[in-house]
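Input.
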Amino acid sequence: MGHGSVIDYFMCDTGDGSEDYCVLDPAINLSDHLPVVIRCRCVYSDCLPAAEATRAPKVEQLRWDHADLLQYYNTTMSLLYPLYNDLVQFETVQYASDNEDRRNFIDYCYNKIVDSLKYTADLHVPLHYKNYYKFWWSEELNCLKDKAIRSDKIWKDAGRPRPSTDCQHALCR
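Output.
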């Protein structure tokens, strides 16, 4: 029939709070309820608790599931292999060194390992905000989403028919 209406309401305490609105009809929305987007002018005080929450730092984390692991391993090996030679050399002279030398060498090795791993991770492991990726999303869900979008397009092209008990439409089968 091609008819539609906007019957949702948005209320604000001032008459000039709403700047613009539009009704969206995205392909992935499989509901007969359409989302309404409203642009508002908001004035807030810094003393409100919500203002503090917006200033809180976002947590970033290494995403190993999206890392180039081969490059990570190769770069780590090239940075740490010289340390192996230092270890071999220290092993041959450790009996002649005192405890202070041993502590200094252990600190040197520790710092070299930590610095190398951090440098390599910065190069090859993406850093994203927490929940940046949908960890549960899969290829099967991609296929289901594509099918849902195609089905929605067929339904809209057919004039959005309502389901009935004697439906003969391709979507009803």
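Helices lie at 49-55, 69-93, 99-124, 139-157.
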